[in-house]
Design a protein that fits this description.
mainly alpha
Amino acid sequence: MTAPADARPQRRSIPATVLGTRDERLNESQPPHIARIAAYVLFFLLGIAVSVCGAFVQALWPPVGVLLALAATAATFYAGLRVTGTRLGAAAPAAGWFLALLLLMVPRPEGDNVLWTNATSLAWLFVGSILGVICATLPTRTSWFPGVPGPPR
């Protein structure tokens, strides 16, 4: 027996297919405590690496480089959120990203700078910060405290 023609499955949008729906994200299983701690450390270090690489990429290819740096930054923050299932998972790479960024903004004694006050550097700084805040405030499987998992569902 075949299904009627109008009983086709609903098509999902591209963001819902890639990121999942809110209900799907909230129903994912929580990783073990030790795995989350290891992921926080790894994502902190990954945030530092993305910040250093992004500082040079956004300056190397001005129109496209800042978009590549922002895409890598957003992907790192969102991956931290999804892998750990906690807001702290997005905040850990954002903290590493911002720490490395602060060190890159300090001028060297010779007068050299990694980040200048041009449009691409400022866009990368401000939009990257906004992406970190957005990812850290997305719905997660946790209770109100950033790194503590909620009760089992």
